[in-house]
Structure formats: C-alpha cells, structure tokens
Amino acid sequence: MIIWNKILKKSIYLCLVIFTSLSLVASSDNFKSVTGSNDIRLNENCLIQGASQNSTSQNRPCIFISPTPSPNLTPTPNLALPKKERFLASITNKLPSIPTPGSFEYIILRQYGAPFINFDSAIKLPQTVFFPNSQETRNYQASLVMGKVNSGNNCFLQKVAADAFNIADKQIDIPLKSGYGSSDCTRTYETNLRFWRKYTNNKTLERVKQGRETAILNVVAPPGTSQHLWGLAIDLRVSKPAQRKALNQNGWFQTVETDVPHWTYLGVPEEKLPEFGFNKKIVRGITYWLTPL
Ligand SMILES: [Zn+2]
User: Fold this and answer.
1) What share of the chain has pLDDT > 70, as a percent?
2) Which of 24, 71, 198, 276 has the greatest CB tally within 10 Å of its CB?
3) What is the mean pLDDT of residues 2-20?
4) How remote is the CA of residue 222 from the centroid of ligand 1, in Å?
5) Residue 144 half-sphere exposure, CB side, CA atoms within 13 Å?
6) What is the pLDDT of residues 71-126, one digit of tens each?
7) CA of 186 to the centre of ligand 1 (A)
8) What spacing in Å lies between the alpha carbon of 277 and ligand 1's midpoint?
9) How many A from CA of 229 to the centre of ligand 1?
10) What is the pLDDT of residues 17-65, one digit of tens each?
11) What is the Å distance from ligand 1's center to 165 Cα?
12) What is the DSSP-derived secondary structure letter of residue 145?
C-alpha cells in the first residue's frame, strides 16, 4: 500500500512538472509571437522604427516610445521608403501639418527645413516653417532655452546647439562671420526683414511664393523664415578642413546651398543624414546636406 502511495505521489509530481514545463513553453511562445507580431505591426504602420501606433491623427500616425528622446536615441528611418517619404516621415511628428507641395510653406520647408530632423527633446522646433510677424517670432523665442556661444560677445543659440558649437570651437578656433555677435546667431524678426530688404525688391517675395524665384533663398531668407530665428543657425568664417570636421562631429552642417558662412544645427551624426533622405551635394569643395523635397 505504501509503495502504491509512493508511486501515486511520484506520478502526480511528474504530471505537475510536465504541466508546468509545457505552460512555460507555451507562454514563452506566446510572448515571442506577441513581440513578433508587434514588430510586424510597427514596420507596416509606422514609418520609423522604434515608433508605436497612435491613432489620434492621420497626419501623425506614430509617436516615439521613449519619453525622453536624446541624440543618442536617433531612430533609424524605414530605409525601404524613397528619400522624400523618409524625410517627411521623420519630421511628421514635429509639425502639426506637413505643407502641401507647391505652397510657400513647402518651398520654405524644402529650403530651410533641415533642423526638423532633430530628435533631441531639449531642442524646441517651431510649430510652423514661418512666422507671420514680429510678435509670433518673439513668443516662440521667449520659450527657448538659450545658451551663449563662448567666442561671441552677444551670440546666443538654443542651449543644446550652443553647447555643441562650443565643444567644436574648443577643439579648433572657429570665428564668427562678423567676428562679433548677434546678427551671426539668433536674430530678431526685424533683423531678418532688414536683411531681406537689403537684397530684394518688393516683388521678390511674390515671385518666391509663386515658385518663380528660388536662387534668392540661397542668399537671404524671406521675413519670418530664417533658421536664425530658431536659434539653430550660425554664420561662421570657416577655412580649414579641421574646422569643418569639428563642426560636423558636433552636429553642425551646411544645409543651404552656396550660403557659405551659414551653418545649421541638426544634432544628428553625419552618417545618419542619408538615412533621413538628405542629399549630399558638393559645390566648390563645400559639402551641403539638402532636404530631398
Ligand atoms: Zn546664416
């Protein structure tokens, strides 16, 4: 009787062990399949890897899972997409709406929209590609966290951009274009307007809006559209490859074709730029990274 009892206990124990093992295998399979199907869903529905579905807006199908994005967490875009779609997919969460091709906003986005590629939550991008007046520019600028560029007397940029520039400037001296300050760095709406009027007549803006004039955009930005309003651009006197290298390694690039002194803070490693769809164009020995729009 005792022997039968022992056999019965052993059988029950064995059954429990087998049942528990099977459950664990099943649950682990289940976990794998959930993760697997989740990955497929992300790839199908989200244009950027590492993003998750958000059904609140058709314009903004994806949000980033990470609550505190940083430059180190720069996502990898879906490389299966054409360049233009890849770029637009990467900036779709930054702008409330993507401008319609052919519109003035689209022309401005194509020309000056490179900084929208920045994924650092400490960088504040504008909610529109151009400010219609001085007041709206000031409201936006008042919301920025600014930092001082060490080499200028009165040169301020968004702090992340200023810090990155100061690191490059410490590696090798990089003088400001004017050698002094404010107009090389963050500008007011009035300064932007003054520069525009210096190079244009009162018909130029209309021609730009109609898409009949584009060359001027490489010389001066229309009122309310300059990257200098965003605290993410600086005008420099760069003459040595080592200066370019230091700037590039710290997230600074040239994004406006033939505007030689103008540098833009993108905060993305250079090797990532083609992944976001940027076109590399070399003009007279200078490398420009242009939006693919
Ligand atoms: Zn500039």
Assistant:
1) 75
2) 276
3) 49
4) 12
5) 26
6) 456 788 889 999 999 999 999 989 999 999 999 999 999 999 999 999 999 999 99
7) 9
8) 23
9) 10
10) 444 333 333 333 332 222 333 322 222 333 333 333 333 333 333 333 2
11) 15
12) -
| C-alpha 187 – ligand 1 centre gap (Å) | 10
The domains found in the chain, sorted by start residue, are 103-290 (3.30.1380)
- Give DSSP secondary structure letters for 168-218: HHHHS---BSSSS-GGGSS--HHHHHHHHHHH--TTHHHHHHTTS--GGGG
How much is the pLDDT for 190?
A: 97
Dihedral-angle region of residue 251 (phi above 0 means left; psi in -120 to 50 means alpha; beta otherwise): left
Ligand 1 center to 274 CA (angstroms):
23
Burial of 91 per CB tally in 10 Å (0-12, 13-18, 19+): buried
- Taking each helix axis from N to C end, the angle separating 134-142 and 189-199, rounded to the nearest 10 degrees, works out to 130
